[in-house]
Amino acid sequence: MLMWTGPFPGPDRLARQYFPGGTWSRPAAMPMEAYRTGDELVVHFDLPGVDHSAIELTVERDTLTVRAERRPDVAEPTETVVAERPYGVFARRLFLGDALDREHVTASYDAGVLTLRIPVAPHAKPRRIQIDAGEARQLTG
Question: What pLDDT, on a 0 to 100 scale, did the predictor assign at position 124?
Fold first, then answer.
């Protein structure tokens, strides 16, 4: 139903831990959670401190891409004492299977969490098949 990938292959996981921000050419991954409830897939992305206007959501064929940018909001000049919050560009790609309805994806953003709701495609929903009862056959033997 859903396949996901981060912007980097597995070996870069340690580097991302120590250098969490990204650039437009090499965006960092954002944490996500996905689950199915009823007839839809719900996906949450953690984007704390990102303005909703800095989030870009696109669907092209079977790929859904989320990109966001978080910039520091301090006035210049400043003297940084501690800088542990990640800034830069964050991205995530999800590959949507045929069982999902790409045309009706909805998105909302609240308290730093981007929530996507992706309906299950009508052809992929379970349906009951009626069984016609034929006339009883008599066995002769």
Answer: 79
Residue 132 lies inside a defined structural domain of this protein:
no
Q: How many domains does the chain have?
A: 1
pLDDT tops 60 at residue 129: yes
* SS3 label, residue 141: coil
Residue 55 lies in a domain: yes
pLDDT digits (tens, 9 = 90+) for 22-49: 665 677 888 999 999 999 999 999 999 8
Q: Pairing mode, if any, of strands 88-96 and 63-70?
A: antiparallel
Candidates 41, 45, 37, 48; CA nearest to 65 is: 45
Higher pLDDT, 18 or 130: 130
Q: Output the domain CATH number for residue 89.
A: 2.60.40.790
Note down the domain range covering 107.
2-75+82-124
